[in-house]
C-alpha cells in the first residue's frame, strides 16, 4: 500500500474482525472473576510477549514508508496504536469498520511530520 493511513485502517479492521469471531478469545475475555484460567493474563497483565511481537511486526512494515521520525518517536507511536487496538480487541466499543476508521484517523494525526 502506498497510503499509510489506509494500511493502518485495513490492518486494524482485519485484527478486530478476527477478534470479533474468535471463540477462544471470547471465552478468555468473558471469564468471570475467580475463574480458573491462565489465559487471560496473556492479554492483560502478562501481555509483554504479545505486545513485543505486534510492535516488531508493525515496525518492520513501517520501515518501508521512510517516516521522518527518530527511533523513539516511532516506538512511542507504534506502542500507542498497538495498545489501543488490543484494548478494542478486549472490549469493543463499536464495529470493526468504525473503530478501524477512528484508530487510523488518530494514527494519521500522530504520523504527521509537523506534529
Question: What features would you describe in this structure?
Answer:
The chain has helices spanning 4-20, 23-29, 48-62, 71-90, 96-110. With 115 residues, it is mostly helical. The longest helix is centred in the C-terminal third of the chain and has 20 residues, at 71-90. The two termini are 23 Å apart. The relative contact order is 0.19.
Labels describing this entry:
115 residues, mainly alpha, 5 helices, globular, 64% helix
The proportion of residues forming helix, as a percent range, comes to 55-70%
Q: What's the average pLDDT?
A: 82
Q: Globular, elongated, flat, extended or rod-shaped: what is the shape?
A: globular
| Order of helix and strand elements from N to C terminus | HHHHH
**Spans of at least 5 consecutive residues with low confidence:** none
Major β-sheet annotation: none
Strand percentage: under 5%
Number of helices in the DSSP assignment: 5
Oligomeric status: single chain
Structural class: mainly alpha
Distance N terminus to C terminus? 23 Å
Radius of gyration: 15 Å
Give a count of the beta strands, DSSP E runs of length 2 or more. Answer: 0
